[in-house]
TrEMBL record:
The enzyme's E.C. designation: 2.7.1.39
Highest taxon of source: Bacteria
Known pathway: Amino-acid biosynthesis; L-threonine biosynthesis; L-threonine from L-aspartate: step 4/5
Name of the protein: Homoserine kinase
SUPFAM superfamilies named in the record: Protein kinase-like (PK-like)
Gene3D superfamilies: 3.90.1200.10, Phosphorylase Kinase, domain 1 (3.30.200.20)
Length: 316
């Protein structure tokens, strides 16, 4: 269960008085997520999502509010936070920082169609285009510096082959990205897996969970999407899905020559980023609750496939 701070109807009813969004009808705990307490709130006017922030760098929450306000203001399908009667979005409830959002329609796509892949590519391209004008800043918390600083924590849990794989990949990344890469920058979602998108059929209902959002290399964000949305069980690229995502993205934002040159290595680096983060959760810093950690072996296979198999180029 992903509700770590239970709320009563009376607490939420009083909380809603800060807004002009109607009276409480139902309150439902959401049994998903890994870090925060989430509730579905229905009033006599609309359906909402209430999030209590349990951990993480809470002083950075204003950045996420500003980013979501900016993207929603540019008509991106994101849940712009609801502001209270005085214009404030970030609140406190039960001693925890709290945000209230509109509830977006749809379900997470388990086996995405080509139309869904095209929709996610188009929307990410639009997001990256407008986000280059976003003035907020938050350094990427899971970039190469993080990989370099944390990979030694898991090496003792790996066999010799996997230790060599991780070290060799890190050496390749540091040789490639160790100096200024001159890649286009902007605001990133930072974790746009399938379970952070909602679809009603092939229609994109919205992108959610921006709490890995940051500013950095735009193709870092795109590589995360490709590694999740366009990958077969053995780690190889699904070329039809790849073409759908990249073709739709390209229609919104062209790639630079530097992005084309560094794309294969970015796919490899973002794959290692998730292999490492999953290993850390399993062996070093397990969650303080009963949620099952995701299997690191999935991203180990993707790391090997990105290294050993020929990767498709960015489309022209």
């Amino acid at each position: 269960m992903a509700v770590f701070t239970p709320l009563t109807e009376a607490q939420v009813r009083d909380f809603l008085l800060r807004y002009e969004i109607g009276d409480l009808v139902t309150l439902e705990e959401v049994a998903s997520g890994t870090e925060n307490s989430t509730f579905f709130v229905t009033t006599d006017q609309q359906q909402l999502v209430l999030t209590l922030f349990e951990q993480g760098e809470q002083e950075e929450l204003p950045f996420f509010v500003d980013l979501l306000d900016f993207l929603a203001g540019h008509s991106l399908p994101v849940p712009g936070p609801i502001h209270d009667k005085t214009g404030v979005a970030l609140q406190s409830l039960a001693g925890k920082p709290a945000l209230l959002f509109p509830r977006l329609p749809g379900r997470h796509p388990h086996d995405p169609t080509l139309s869904q892949c095209a929709a996610i590519g188009q929307t990410l391209g639009q997001l990256h285009t407008v986000s280059r004008h976003f003035t907020g800043s938050r350094p990427n918390p899971r970039d190469l510096r993080w990989i370099s600083a944390n990979h030694t924590k898991v090496l003792s849990y790996l066999n010799a082959d996997d230790q060599a794989l991780m070290r060799d990949e890190l050496d390749a990344f540091e040789a490639t990205f160790g100096t200024d890469t001159a890649l286009p920058q902007g605001a990133l979602h930072g974790d746009l897996f399938r379970d952070n998108a909602l679809f009603d059929g092939d229609r994109l209902g919205g992108l959610i969970d921006f709490y890995n959002g940051c500013t950095g290399d735009l193709i870092f964000d795109l590589a995360i999407v490709v590694n999740d949305w366009c990958t077969r069980e053995n780690g190889a690229i699904d070329h039809e899905r790849y073409a759908s995502v990249l073709g739709a993205y390209l229609a919104e934002r062209p790639f630079t020559d530097r992005e084309r040159a560094l794309w294969p290595m970015m796919l490899r680096m973002t794959a290692l980023r998730y292999w490492l983060s999953r290993l850390l959760v399993v062996y070093v810093d397990p969650p303080a609750h009963t949620l099952t950690p995701k299997d690191p072996a999935q991203y180990r296979a993707i790391v090997k496939a990105r290294r050993d198999l020929e990767l498709p180029a960015l489309p022209a």
